[in-house]
Amino acid sequence: MAALAAILQSVYIIAMLRFHLITLFPDACDAYLNASILGRARKEKRISIDYQTPRDFVDNRWGKVDERPYGGGPGMVMTALPVVRAIKKSLARRKDKKIALVWFSPGGKEFTNKEADSLLKYDDVVLVCGRYEGIDERAKKAMKVFGTVKNYSVGSAIYTGAEVPAMAIVDATTRRIPGVLGKDESVEERRVAAREVYTRPESIEWEGKAYRIPKVLAGGNHAEIEQWKKRKG
Question: Shortest CA distance to 42 belongs to which of 157, 174, 142?
């Protein structure tokens, strides 16, 4: 049984989660998604990241992707069809896969660690990044033909575009893939973690004042240290 569990775990680790970002600014996203732990996860083929820009799927020669909103109001709205076409292109070779399509809105479901875990059940996660005043709602309705549509809000603030929330979702989900962080205990909520962290040296000096680490951390009593972490967690 232990051998079978090890085999199953290795298969799970090898399986690659594919993220597809539908965005007008792929270069801005890739700078972050190709760095540090995420960059290593891409090199090790634990995840892949693909980009499609709606500008490549417009019917006009200017690359225009937005129009004035029906009913009036400020700003511009991204048109539906270029977005849907970009999604279709990104999934062209992903037939018979389990697909989640993420739509962002301030009134969406709060994205949490539990939601990040739920995305690991899919083969492909498509993150639709709106700009301006948002995307024509008909794109969301049309997306349903490709897979399961999830409506998320990442934080309570309003962003200029959905690229930042999309990158946050890639980050939060990727680090939960077994093996990405090296040890499963590195995922904070799976261990006792404190909001306060310290490292060497034990004491530092700044402008004539000494700053020391909490005494308990230097004492070597692991039970007391764990209790301190729980209080500070």
Answer: 174
Lowest-confidence region among 5-14, 138-147, 171-180: 5-14
**In which residue are the tokens 């965005």 written?**
23
DSSP3 helix / strand / coil % (the chain, rounded to 5): 40, 20, 40
d(CA 30, CA 38): 10
Cα–Cα dist 204/200, whole Å: 9
Q: Which residue has the tokens 């700044």?
A: 206
Q: What is the pLDDT of residue 15?
A: 78
pLDDT tens digits, residue range 153-197?
A: 999 888 999 999 999 999 999 999 999 997 665 565 655 567 888
The answer to whether 127 and 33 are in contact (CB under 8 A) is no
Q: Which pairs count as long-range contacts for 89-95, CB under 8 Å and 24+ apart, including other chains?
A: 89/52, 89/56, 89/57, 90/20, 90/22, 90/50, 90/52, 90/126, 91/20, 91/124, 91/126, 91/146, 94/18, 94/123, 94/124
Q: Count the neighbouring beta carbons within 10 Å of the beta carbon of residue 180.
A: 21
Residue type, 21: L
Please tell me the pTM assigned to this model.
0.85
